[in-house]
Specification:
The complex is a heterodimer. Chain A contains eleven helices and ten strands. By secondary structure, chain A is an alpha+beta fold. Chain A folds into three domains: 112 residues, Acyl-CoA dehydrogenase/oxidase, N-terminal domain (Butyryl-Coa Dehydrogenase, subunit A, domain 1, Orthogonal Bundle); 106 residues, Butyryl-CoA Dehydrogenase, subunit A, domain 2, CATH 2.40.110; 149 residues, Up-down Bundle (Butyryl-CoA Dehydrogenase, subunit A, domain 3). The longest helix of chain A has 36 residues. The two termini of chain A are 25 Å apart. Chain B has three domains: 83 residues, no CATH class; 109 residues, Butyryl-CoA Dehydrogenase, subunit A, domain 2 (Beta Barrel), CATH 2.40.110; 144 residues, Butyryl-CoA Dehydrogenase, subunit A, domain 3. By secondary structure, chain B is an alpha+beta fold. The chains are: A alpha+beta, B alpha+beta. The interface between A and B is large, with 46 and 47 residues.
């Protein structure tokens, strides 16, 4: 039992901390977002140069055999600076699936292209009306000779509009909500029949709705076993949960720091407003929420790679519930303590507020995951 | 980073578990698990059993007769004790005054007081709060005037938990009125059998006698019972509060109660289904389970932090007591209106009379009422937030 980072993780943490504070200022971030590209080429290649895009890939494919704790270190730092690069989409979600279920040819081709920074990928899984339900997939892939014909509609694809290639889930057998009968495909974003509606997101990210209309996909691009994708999709989402929990911790700590700074300097009634006990106690509660969330983000990172499904699902849903509640608390209080300034576009706190808010909505909100934990209690003989 | 216990730690857990299975007396286990009334005899009997094993003080270093366990081993020990149904050991001696004596006492005091604390022969209580000094502890007025080689103590302490059993009381007393209120306070150990001491019960809202008022009327205390230096007592008191707060997270006991609560939720009926099938209740149970897991991990983070427990320990006191209170609230609500009946005799082990509802209903409301104390004692949770604001956030 120990909570220490390894020396390598500590170095990674230190260099990322420096990178974010030196190269990713609030002003620079705004220009990146205004450019509307979903990724800043210089930043992305800097991340590639740091080896970050390959960190969690196997050594045999140019990586460092990193794990979800390494991802935690990365995402926590991204959270502090609200980095909006397509790391989560490319490396954690799509890259994670290729790493976990891809064959050697697919790993060789995709992982090295991701690692060098030349290819971006995204995971297209959620569908309209499915909300956070992972097994409700109505996109179909019909076998046709040595091809599959993919048709359907995907929604809320993180950085879908910036991806060169998509990992797409589709039903190859069974009924709309069955866990079995799902398969994954690697599909080029510019393939015939793929239509991408790329939107700006409130949090500075990009998000897309994507439709597939009789898209021909070579059987070579089937990712993993036919009909057996569900447990892998679920695990990819758990890796995503662990990643955004860590990002949330970084952003909560940033919110607490910037709010603390504000209430120490902003004067009303002749004194810094941080002298008022009513604000002190709220700030103390924000601190407590961040610390509790950090504990659960650590739990999430240390469990996300586990193949013990019951243990992993329980831990990740516990973490996402508590972090989902924590981000709401810290985000709302942070804005409130900034007073009128908190609702202006010029304040970093307002942008932290927006990202902290959307993190709760990703991969299932607090209510969704509370229900998961709760329903597991039914089975337990306690 | 590794959240698993090491094989050595797991072996240690198994050893503790086996010891508890072999040595925890059935009557004590039953009283704890059914949340019946505790008494002095059972607490001392259990302390003696642990003492003879060499495990009397899980947090003490070896040089004073402790087992010299790491923080993780201490946690494992506490958790196993709670899960097995062992009674809570008496904190006042073991975890409160003992670290002060070890750190600030002289050799003579260590030799004289620590063995009795470890064996459980000496029962200690705490003399901090006064009628006019609660959260504003430094305004205390109980005075100790030096006369030759004695102090003459006059004043009144209150909220003295289990003081009715005590052989000794550690007190904060005023030895000077110069300077700031904190500067004139001393830390004095007083024999409860000294003439001039009067203990009067305060009955709590659950009808139980747990706390007391202690009056001092010209009590003659030998000067050798002063800990450290005169007028430096506030420093020692703050040191002690840091120790107390870490213990107040109480995770082991809450885990044992959570386990019981889950069983109760499966056993209690809600119409023609088990209560656990009531989604609204189950969601609250799940919520609390999640919060307890977060607390457990936070405790482990604080205790394994090489910098030692700092003001962050205030988080543990706040969250630990909030979670404990919610546990007792759900335990009460789980038994529904059966919890309303107040049958004081039914809190004894040999009670054979009628009771309302299941055995879990018997202590449910009384415990809930009683446990409102958690967020009030040991520095109220509002005071803890002040501490975080001032010492952690620099406000």
């Amino acid at each position: 039992m120990n909570f220490d980072l390894t020396d390598e993780q500590q170095m990674l943490n230190d260099s990322l901390r420096r990178f974010v504070s030196n190269e990713y200022s609030f002003e620079k971030r705004s220009t990146f977002i205004d450019a509307g590209k979903g990724s800043d080429p210089q930043t992305w290649s800097a991340l590639a140069d740091m080896g970050l895009l390959a960190f969690t890939f196997p050594e045999a494919f140019g990586g460092l055999d990193g794990n979800a704790v390494d991802t935690m270190v990365v995402m926590e730092n991204f959270g502090r600076g609200l980095v909006v690069e397509p790391y989560l989409a490319t490396v954690v979600l799509a890259g994670g699936l290729i790493r976990d279920v891809g064959n050697d040819a697919q790993k060789d081709e995709c992982l090295s292209a991701i690692a060098s920074g030349e290819r971006k990928m995204a995971l297209a899984h959620y569908e309209p009306g499915a909300r956070y339900n992972l097994s409700l997939v109505q996109t179909t892939a019909r076998k046709d000779g040595d091809h599959f014909m993919v048709s359907g509609q995907k929604t809320a694809v993180i950085h879908g509009g910036q991806a060169d290639q998509l990992v797409v889930s589709a039903r190859t057998s069974g009924n709309a909500t069955d866990e079995s009968g799902l398969s994954l495909f690697i599909i080029d974003a510019n393939a015939k029949g793929v239509k991408i509606d790329d939107y700006a997101a409130h949090d500075g990210y990009r998000i897309a709705d994507i439709s597939f209309s009789n898209v021909a996909v070579s059987a070579d691009n089937l990712l993993g076993e036919l009909d057996q994708a569900f447990p892998h999709i679920e695990k990819a989402m758990d890796l995503g949960i662990a990643a955004v929990c860590a990002e949330a911790v970084g952003a909560m700590e940033a919110m607490n720091e910037t709010t603390l700074e504000y209430i120490k300097t902003r004067k009303q009634f002749g004194v810094p407003i941080g002298k008022f006990q009513v604000l002190q106690h709220r700030m103390a509660d924000m601190f407590i929420q961040a610390e509790q969330s950090k504990s659960m983000a650590i739990l999430a990172a240390n469990t996300a790679d586990s193949d013990d499904r019951a243990e992993r699902r329980n831990a990740l849903s516990m973490a996402k519930t508590l972090v989902g509640q924590g981000v709401r608390y810290v985000a709302q209080e942070g804005v409130q303590l900034h007073g009128g300034m908190g609702v202006t576009d010029e304040m970093f706190a307002a942008h932290l507020f927006k990202r902290l808010t959307t993190i709760n909505l990703l991969f299932g909100d607090a209510d969704h995951h509370l229900a998961q934990v709760s329903d597991q209690l039914l089975a337990k003989s306690a | 980073m590794d959240l698993n216990y090491t094989p050595e730690q797991e072996a240690f857990r198994a050893e503790v578990r086996q010891f508890l299975e072999d040595n925890l007396p059935d009557d004590i286990r039953e009283r704890v698990q059914k949340r019946l009334r505790h008494d002095k005899e059972m607490t001392q009997r259990w302390q003696k059993i642990l003492y003879e094993k060499g495990w009397g003080a899980s947090t003490w270093p070896e040089e004073f007769g402790g087992p010299g366990w790491s923080p993780i081993e201490q946690i494992i020990f506490e958790e196993e004790c709670a899960l097995a149904g062992a009674p809570r050991q008496l904190d006042f001696g073991l975890r409160m005054v003992a670290p002060v004596i070890m750190t600030f006492g002289n050799e003579e005091q260590k030799k004289r007081f620590l063995p009795g604390i470890l064996s459980g022969e000496d029962w200690w209580c705490q003399g901090y709060s006064e009628p006019g000094a609660g959260s504003d502890l430094a305004s205390l007025r109980t005075s100790a005037k030096r006369e030759g080689d004695h102090y003459i103590v006059n004043g009144q302490k209150t909220w003295t938990t289990l003081g009715q059993h005590a052989d000794w009381i550690f007190c904060l007393v005023r030895t000077s009125n110069e300077g700031k209120p904190q500067q004139g306070i001393s830390f004095l150990l007083i024999d409860m059998n000294d003439p001039g001491i009067d203990v009067k019960p305060i009955i709590m809202l659950d009808g139980e006698h747990e706390i007391n008022e202690v009056y001092f009327d010209n009590v003659k205390v030998p000067a050798e019972n002063l800990i450290g230096e005169e007028n430096q007592g506030w420093t020692y008191a703050k040191f002690l509060l840091g120790h107390e707060r870490t213990g107040l997270a109480n995770v082991g006991q809450w885990k044992a109660l959570m386990k019981r609560l889950k069983t109760v939720a499966h056993e209690e009926q809600d119409g023609q289904r088990p209560l656990i099938e009531n989604t609204r209740f189950r969601d609250r149970l799940a919520q609390l389970d999640i919060e307890l897991r977060a607390l457990e991990l936070t405790v482990l983070r604080v205790l394994t932090d090489k910098r030692g427990p700092g003001p962050q320990a205030s988080i543990l006191k706040i969250r630990g007591t909030e979670i404990g209170q919610k546990l007792f609230e759900l335990l009460m609500e789980a038994t529904g209106q059966d919890a309303i009946a107040h049958i004081p005799d039914a809190l004894e082990l040999d009670y054979n009379g009628p009771r309302a509802g299941s055995i879990d209903a018997t202590p449910a409301a009384g415990d809930y009422f009683n446990m409102r104390k958690l967020s009030i004692f040991g520095g109220s949770n509002e005071i803890q937030r002040n501490i975080i604001a001032q010492l952690v956030l620099g406000l």
